[in-house]
Amino acid sequence: MLSTSAIALLAIGIIVVLITPGPTNTLLAAAGLRQGVRRSLPLIAAELAGYLLSISVWGHFLAQAAHALPWLPSLLRVAAGVYIAYLAVDMWRAAVALPDSTQRASGMRTLFVATLLNPKGLLFAGTIFPAVAFAHLPAYGTAMLMFACLLVPIALAWIAFGAALGSGKLTWLNPVKMQRGASIVLGVFSLSLAWAALH
């Protein structure tokens, strides 16, 4: 089973990565913008399925590869830290734009594939989830249950955010400040990953 500290770190990592703007979250917000919260709710199941498959495949592959290449987990943590730092800089420099509301809404398959191919799946499997989650079934079940419980409200928040933008309720929102705040959170998280990998 996972220790209390491992569960706490897992929860923090999941939340930080899931709230970060990316292809899946942009599609969720765009769906909320175009078709409202209620009609967009099934997309949460597509996101969850895409992440569960991606994380499981990457996690089991990396667990097997780590036996032959014991340095691989540390290298992945450093690479993940660099990738998140890149995302932080990229988010700081460019505003997140949602697709135009006149475009056709994304379907379940589009969101599933976007999530399946999202680099966050590798990030979750290689650095956020503890290695024990892919070695022991009870730990895997605990980690995935926690992931699902955190994903649902965060995905719903992205859909609701898009719907609020579409209704004109967020005219006060400054996307640049919001994005820069998120980029600072990502920057701190990337430093913590690098620190963990090197110590």
Automatic annotation (TrEMBL):
Entry's localization field: Cell membrane
Parts of the chain that traverse the membrane: 6-31, 43-63, 69-89, 110-133, 139-161, 181-198
Keyword vocabulary terms for this entry: Cell membrane, Membrane, Transmembrane, Transmembrane helix
Chief location bin: membrane
Keyword field contains Cell membrane: yes
Topological relation to the membrane, as annotated: Multi-pass membrane protein
Keyword Membrane: yes
InterPro entries tied to this protein: LeuE-type (IPR001123)
PANTHER family: ARGININE EXPORTER PROTEIN ARGO, ARGININE EXPORTER PROTEIN ARGO-RELATED
Name of the protein described by the UniProt record: Threonine/homoserine/homoserine lactone efflux protein
